[in-house]
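Q: Predict the bound structure with zinc ion.
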Amino acid sequence: MGMRMVALAVGVITAAVSLGAQAERLQPLDSSGRITYFISAGEPASGYRASDRELAVWALKDWERSAAGRIRLVESLRQDALILVNFVGAQAGNYGEMRPLYANGRRGAEVFIRPDTDGLGPDIGGMARADPLMRDTIVYLTCVHELGHALGLNHTSNFADIMYFFGFGGDIPGFFTRYRAQLKERADIARVPGMSASDVAKLRSLY
Ligand SMILES: [Zn+2]
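A: Predicted complex:
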């Protein structure tokens, strides 16, 4: 991990990057309407499951619906993608991160999701092991959060927001259980939005 990546990394939980993450002013993607994306196969030993790809797609669709027609997210070849989604191994309790990039001269974003919930500490790891839908909730909400950064949303200090920064503390397991409580089966994830009204309003202000 180079210096540039460290400086721009916007972790969900890592306190070490909290000040930098808060100072970083993210920008909307360089796109009027159509945003291309590509989802890579998970890295070996990353805890990735084949079904995680669907979680990333649902997260993208969730943001697309929130934008009420302002943006359309379209799968593309890797070389044409403005948003790259990667599933990578556990690292220092990080849920995920986003790194701005330039794709064919346009402002894009690369998102890293860490699906090994055992790497997120005993509380979160235990919840995920006891309940497969909780495990998918954690991976899904991480996708929604990091893709929110990719689309230009900054952290907030409001616990109700998907863009809430865990560095502010609070009931982190509760952040996930409130979403999990709305699910009866996995397919419900495609129907239950992960973001707050405030997250949605911010997205619409950017596009
Ligand atoms: Zn974040």
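A: The chain has one domain: 3-206.
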